[in-house]
Structure formats: structure tokens, C-alpha cells
Design goal:
Blueprint: H1 2-31, E1 48-54, H2 68-83, E2 88-92, E3 96-97, H3 108-111, H4 127-135, E4 142-148, H5 159-181, E5 186-203, E6 206-223, H6 224-233, E7 246-253, E8 258-259, E9 265-267, E10 277-280, E11 287-291, E12 300-305, H7 314-317, E13 323-326, E14 330-336, E15 351-357, E16 365-370, H8 376-380, E17 382-383, E18 396-397, H9 399-413, E19 422-427
Parallel strand pairs: 1-2, 1-4, 8-19, 17-18
Antiparallel strand pairs: 2-3, 4-6, 5-6, 5-7, 9-12, 10-11, 12-15, 13-16, 14-15, 16-19
Length: 432
């Protein structure tokens, strides 16, 4: 009898141990998602993908040869059709057209030429009308994808371009508000692509033959979580297995600013520092004590960030121009994703942010802010005065005004600090 009692106690102990290990494993697994602490982790359904190819005459030059445009389009159609059931393709200009050529995703690119794409009113492009048509169909799980050279159909520049930008803002604000009414966050992924072009380049109403590389754009619009799923599965990256011809990517969402915590950031206790010792608090983020080298005066330390779930492109996150450090005596020295520290094992693809002081004046709290700016590449890729000639190969007419319109919609629906992408506060309890 006593032996049975001991066996029962041993069995209960083993079961309890397994339960504790399971709890710990599950907790660590959830930590690895690096979600904001107030974010409920719910299952995200697969998006319903609708792809719209704008087919005005200015797009002809991308399909006359076996170009990167066709390669990227084939990649997008194959992966979207493979991962997401009921993926559909349409042409779009003055309205949406379901042409016979669009119904065969597997052979669409093989059949695509300047004749087969002549569907509907292809004389010019009213980009804001296209945005309105697509966003009206972008509800719930539906993600809309626009493929276009994104040329604003504006004959005169100046105030008319400003008006076109404002109209874009209004159109996207309606979509954002509609999503928020349904308890969702709206997002946009804007990709700048490049391809060989042989055809007619239009400056206003004047067409000129052109052969060379030209930019075009792929814009994904819809629920932010669905876009994140699509971004990962379709590999929307400039990699050998990603999107051929991709140059840049910009991601926007209506979600609130992410306040980083001890699950998303760590103070490095070794390397990148001229402090004799950094003693973090038990949470790994706030600092219990600095022991500094008073002869050097300046302080230099680093923070590791695990921001895999942040809705932002890595190129943007690694650009130091997008950061602000407060108070003024602190400054951002460097940011990279090449650091090799044991503390980084906590994250999957860590980012190392190096912070320092310009003098021996320290403050008890440091704030690192990733701001939401229109990336530099947008203005560098845009011109807004008709040239009556060939623009630089990487430039698009009024691209900045278009992006400014989309950006303005997200900027206007947010208030205060929620205009930033994330904020990180590090408190220092004591200096030696």
C-alpha cells in the first residue's frame, strides 16, 4: 500500500513537472512573437487576393520584351495563386475589367502583350479614380494589389498636383476609417520596381520612343495583419527568390505607436560601450547602474531590438535618419543588424542601436523614437514638372505627391505620439 502511495506521488510529480515545462515553453514561444504587450494574439485568416494591372498606353513598354516586369508579375501571380485560394486578376483603367486573358493565372504572362492588354479605356490614367475603385472592394479579408507606373493624370502642375494629392488622402482616409469601424487596422505596402522598357514614354500628352530601364510600382492595400502574412509568404524582398527588379519598399499602417518593452528590447551588457560596467535591471531593459570611466567622460552603450512584428520595412528601420533620441545630450551613433552578441539570441533578427553622449552629462531617462517619415528614396525618385524630354531612368512624374497623399491619410487619423512607429524608454537608476 505504501509502495502504491509513493508511485502515485511520483506520477503526480512527473505530471506537474511536464505541465510547468509546457507552460514555460509556451510562454517563451509567445515571447518570440515580440508583440506589443496589449496586443491580443488571435489567429489571422488568409487574405483574399485581388490583383489589378493598370493597362494604359504608358504601360505598353513593359510588356514588349521578356522583361523584369514580366518576371516579377509571374512571381507574384504564381505565389499568390499557390498560397491563397481564389486569387483573381483584373485589368483596371476607367473601371475594372475581367478579361478572358486574366482568368488563366498560370499562362497570363505568356499571353501578355501590347494587343492582349488593350481592354477598356486605355487612353489615359486617372490614378485617384483607380484608388477609389479598388479601395471600395478592399474590405474584411480582401487585399487589393495595384500594378501601375503610377503617373498622375494631371495636365498642369502646381496647385492641380496639390489637389490630386489631397484627393488621394481623402480616398485612403475613407478606407482607413472603414477598417477601424470594423475593429481592424489598415495597411499599405508600396514597392518601387524597375524593369527594361521598350515603347512610348509620355510627358503630358506628348509621346516619345524610349528604350531603357523605367520604374513601376506594386501597391498592396488592406487589413494590416493580412498584408503582413502576404509580405512573408510572397517574399516581397530584393532577394534571389524574391521580387525581380525590386528597388525599395515603404510600409504604412494605422496601428498605434508600439511602446517597446522588455520582450522587444535589451540593453547590451557587453560590447559597444566604454562604460566599465552596465548593470541592467532584472527586466533586461532599464538600467540599474552605470559604472563609467570618468577619464573618458562620454558614455557609449547599445540596445538590442527584436522588431520582427513591427509593420515596417527593414531598410527603413536601419536608416538612422528616421530616428530621434531624447534628451538632447544623447545621440544615435549607429544602427545595424550585423552585431553578434549573446544577448541577441533572445531575438530572431536583432537590430543593434548604439547610443552615446556628447559630454559627461547624463540623464535619468533616454527615449529612442522611430519616426514615420516619407523615405528619402521617394523624393529622389520623383519630379513634378513636365520635361518635354526623357526623365532620369529612376524618376516618376509626381511620385512624391502620390505618396504624400497616401502618407497624409495615415498621418491624419493618428494623434500625438501615435504618429511614430515605436518608442523605447530606458531609465537609468544610478551612475557611478
Amino acid at each position: 500500500m505504501q509502495r502504491k502511495s509513493w508511485a502515485l506521488l511520483l506520477l503526480l510529480a512527473v505530471v506537474g513537472l511536464i505541465y510547468l515545462i509546457s507552460r514555460k515553453s509556451n510562454h517563451r514561444s509567445s515571447d518570440g512573437n515580440f508583440l506589443p504587450p496589449d496586443t491580443a494574439q488571435v489567429a489571422v485568416g488568409k487574405p483574399v487576393v485581388r490583383i489589378y494591372m493598370e493597362n494604359s498606353g504608358s504601360m505598353d513598354g513593359f510588356v514588349t520584351l521578356n522583361t523584369q516586369f514580366k518576371n516579377a508579375l509571374g512571381h507574384l501571380l504564381a505565389k499568390a495563386g499557390g498560397f491563397y485560394e481564389d486569387t483573381k486578376l483584373f485589368f483596371v483603367n476607367d473601371r475594372i475589367y475581367d478579361a478572358p486573358i486574366c482568368q488563366d493565372l498560370n499562362n497570363f504572362v505568356l499571353r501578355l502583350n501590347t494587343t492582349s492588354m488593350k481592354v477598356g479605356h486605355t487612353g489615359n490614367t486617372d490614378l485617384n479614380k483607380i484608388f477609389s475603385l479598388l479601395l471600395d472592394k478592399t474590405n474584411g479579408d480582401t487585399v487589393s494589389v495595384l500594378i501601375s507606373d503610377c503617373v498622375y493624370d494631371v495636365d498642369n502642375v502646381g496647385n492641380l498636383l496639390s489637389g490630386a494629392s489631397s484627393a488621394t488622402t481623402g480616398t485612403f482616409m475613407k478606407a482607413i476609417r472603414r477598417a477601424q469601424d470594423n475593429k481592424r487596422e489598415f495597411g499599405v505596402i508600396l514597392m518601387q520596381m524597375e524593369s527594361l522598357f521598350q515603347g512610348t514614354h509620355y510627358e503630358g500628352n506628348i509621346g516619345m520612343p524610349y528604350y531603357g530601364k523605367r520604374p513601376y510600382y506594386i501597391i498592396f492595400m488592406g487589413d494590416k495583419d493580412r498584408l503582413a502574412d502576404l509580405n512573408a509568404h510572397l517574399e516581397l524582398e530584393n532577394t534571389p527568390t524574391g521580387m525581380p527588379g525590386m528597388r525599395h519598399k515603404y510600409m504604412l499602417s494605422s496601428e498605434k505607436t508600439w511602446d517597446l518593452d522588455n520582450q522587444t528590447a535589451r540593453v547590451f551588457t557587453s560590447g559597444f560601450t566604454n562604460a566599465r560596467r552596465i548593470q541592467p535591471e532584472h527586466d533586461g531593459l532599464n538600467i540599474h547602474n552605470f559604472t563609467t570611466n570618468h577619464e573618458q567622460g562620454k558614455l557609449n552603450f547599445a540596445v538590442g531590438l527584436g522588431v520582427e512584428q513591427l509593420f515596417a520595412d527593414r531598410e527603413y528601420v536601419l536608416d538612422s535618419a528616421n530616428y530621434e533620441v531624447l534628451p538632447a545630450q544623447y545621440r544615435l551613433i549607429d544602427i545595424n543588424d550585423k552585431a553578434k552578441f549573446t544577448e541577441c539570441d533572445f531575438f530572431r533578427r536583432p537590430i543593434c542601436v548604439q547610443i552615446g553622449t556628447g559630454n559627461d552629462s547624463y540623464a535619468p531617462e533616454i527615449t529612442l523614437i522611430l519616426k514615420n517619415n516619407i523615405p528619402k528614396w521617394v523624393s529622389e525618385s520623383s519630379y513634378n514638372k513636365h520635361l518635354m524630354g526623357y526623365p532620369a531612368p529612376h524618376k516618376s512624374y509626381a511620385l512624391y505627391e502620390m505618396v504624400e497623399g497616401i502618407y497624409g491619410a495615415f498621418h491624419n487619423v493618428k494623434g500625438g505620439n501615435d504618429k511614430d512607429l515605436f518608442r523605447l524608454k530606458i531609465r537609468v537608476a544610478h551612475y557611478d
